[in-house]
Amino acid sequence: MPSRRPHTKTRHGCNTCKARKVRCDEEKPVCRNCTRGNRSCSYPSQILAIPNSLATHIDAQDQIFPIRDMELLHHYTSFTYKLMTNDPDQFEIWQVNVPQMAFRYRFLLHGILAVAALHRRYEAEDSQKETLMNLARYHQQHALTLYIPRLHSINQDNCNALFAFSMLLGILCFGMLDDQDLGSRAIISRFLDCFDALMGATAVAYEAAHWLRQGIFRPIMEEIWPEVHDFAHLKEGAREALESLLAQVESTCRSDPADPVQAYLASIYGWATVMYPAPGDRQVLIVVAWPVLAGATYVSLLKRRDPLALVILGHYGVALHLYGRLWMIEGLGKRLTEAIAEELDVAWRPLLAWPLSRVSEVITPE
């Protein structure tokens, strides 16, 4: 009986012959075994290799996602998204829908990564805080570079991504204010820069309101702010403080009719609106709402360092202080109100007595 010819292994045989454990003649593009058996024939190098033309296209269009950014995105989709709302019905918007949009719009992706870096910084050890802040600044700068030009061409396709970023921008603006070495004048200037950014972002909501109400952000767009015409909902100390502000507005505008009384009133009643009892799911909206409610004219008064406008801003510090349990504004209310007290002439100090007292109190979670 003739002996069986031994099987000789080949290192570079096709995948099909290797799976069948038969000798492959390694003929390409299709070996003889696969030709005779009408089988699919492929080689490992063919599966793993990318044609040069395709590789060049990939390199030109997309860069490999850095591990650090993958970690930030994971942190956002695991933890940070919950800070955008306390309403479980809106979790999917921020955890799933917004990240999906971010892969189409790089400014939104950078915005997500910037917010995640800030959030991680809040929880990180001191040795990591500077690195995470620099990372947040890096992504914020890239986001704004791509975002700002888009504001000139808001349409139905990009409005949801622009609106999502405008919400993230509010958190970024306040989160970036955490610099303990700033003097009083610099702190106020930083807040005004923050207000400028927020005022610009509201253009998206106004211009695209119809489209936004038809999409994933409908629940947010349908939030109804109460029309506040008095201070009945405020606690006693706050009511008296705002009534004193109204009296000062009347006195100031009587002596100088050129003063924009409507801007003062809008900022005061805007403060009362922000302090209106609200469900937890509006926390982030409340934080960013006041400069928008106060209006552009009031913000321009602040830029001129108008004393009465600054006094009203000092009262806004109380609102920030009361919401200080939110990570991105912790401690900011106290610093803002005290900075304004340092900047103003002593004659205005009586109007700051109540806010200075309130921001000195320890706020405990409800």
TrEMBL record:
Ranges for domain Zn(2)-C6 fungal-type come to 13-43
Q: Does the keyword Thylakoid apply?
A: no
Record keyword Chloroplast present: no
Give GO terms: molecular function aspect only. Answer: DNA-binding transcription activator activity, RNA polymerase II-specific; zinc ion binding
Family matches, as SUPFAM superfamilies: Zn2/Cys6 DNA-binding domain
Identify the PROSITE patterns for this entry. Answer: ZN2_CY6_FUNGAL_1, ZN2_CY6_FUNGAL_2
This protein's source sits in the domain of life called Eukaryota
Q: Which Pfam families does the record cross-reference, listed alphabetically?
A: Fungal_trans_2 (PF11951), Zn_clus (PF00172)
Alphabetical UniProt keywords:
Membrane, Nucleus, Transmembrane, Transmembrane helix
Transmembrane spans: 160-177, 284-302, 308-328
State the Gene3D superfamilies in the record.
Zn(2)-C6 fungal-type DNA-binding domain
Q: What is this protein called?
A: Zn(2)-C6 fungal-type domain-containing protein
The organism is: Dothistroma septosporum (strain NZE10 / CBS 128990)
- High-level lineage: Eukaryota, Fungi, Dikarya, Ascomycota, Pezizomycotina
